[in-house]
Amino acid sequence: MLCLSWWVAQQWQPKGTADFGNASLGIVHSDWDAIFREMRRILCPPRESEGCRLCAVGWVLIGAKCYWISDGMNPWNKSREDCRDRGSALLVPWDQDELEFLNESLQKPTRHFWIGLSVPVAGMGWTWVNGSDLDQDRFRLDFGNQPGTCGTLKGNAISPQTCDRRLQWICHKESVRI
């Protein structure tokens, strides 16, 4: 995003005055509206006068969220760390409808993917990586609370797997509105 902002800013500079230093860009606060209007003009579909949403290269935009699907395979903990390193989290779907929408959009119904659901310790139930408990009203799941078990997405269903199994994973984060 910063590179894109820099590029747009360069388009507004008088020829021959572009420089890479922040002070020499000469952009004042009042110029940012014009810069973002130009970014929207270049990047957003014509009818999106209020802007559009963008994801980083390699991420898939679905609705207002960005999704990244791994090529490699890792146990659940390493998958969670990888998502954190990307400034995101393992997938925490809102409800069954989002799972079905993701399944249709990503078209990977035969593979298991780690999502952000686990049974962290004995005596605890299923917990999302954001700290919230699994809401049985949103997801109709019927499997035990065995520690060391983590959630996977296969098709539009969540199923349990041992957390040390090596699988692909899905990260998600909010898109950027410009």
Q: Over all CA atoms, what is the radius of gyration?
A: 21 Å
Report how far apart the termini are. 10 Å
Shape: elongated
Largest sheet: 8 strands, mixed
CATH class of the largest domain: Alpha Beta
What does the oligomeric state look like here?
single chain
Helix content: 25-40%
Order of helices and strands: HHHEEEHEHEEEEEE
Summing up helix and strand content along with how strands pair, one would put the structural category as alpha+beta
CATH architecture of the largest domain: Roll
Stretches where pLDDT is under 50 for at least 5 consecutive residues are: 1-24
CATH topology of the largest domain: Mannose-Binding Protein A, Chain A
InterPro entries: C-type_lectin-like, C-type_lectin-like/link_sf, C-type_Lectin_Receptor_IMM, CTDL_fold, NKR-like_CTLD
Main location: membrane
Pfam family, one: Lectin_C
Keywords: Lectin
Report what the structure shows.
The structure is a single chain. With 178 residues, the protein is of the alpha+beta class. The protein has helices spanning 2-12, 22-25, 29-43, 76-85, 96-106; strands at residues 53-54, 60-62, 65-69, 89-90, 113-118, 127-128, 149-154, 157-162, 168-174, 176-177. It folds into 2 domains: 2-51, no CATH class; 60-177, Mannose-Binding Protein A, Chain A, CATH 3.10.100.10. It is built from 5 helices and 10 strands; from the N terminus they run H-H-H-E-E-E-H-E-H-E-E-E-E-E-E. It is a single-pass membrane protein. InterPro entries: C-type_lectin-like, C-type_lectin-like/link_sf, C-type_Lectin_Receptor_IMM, CTDL_fold, NKR-like_CTLD. Residues 62-172 form the C-type lectin domain.
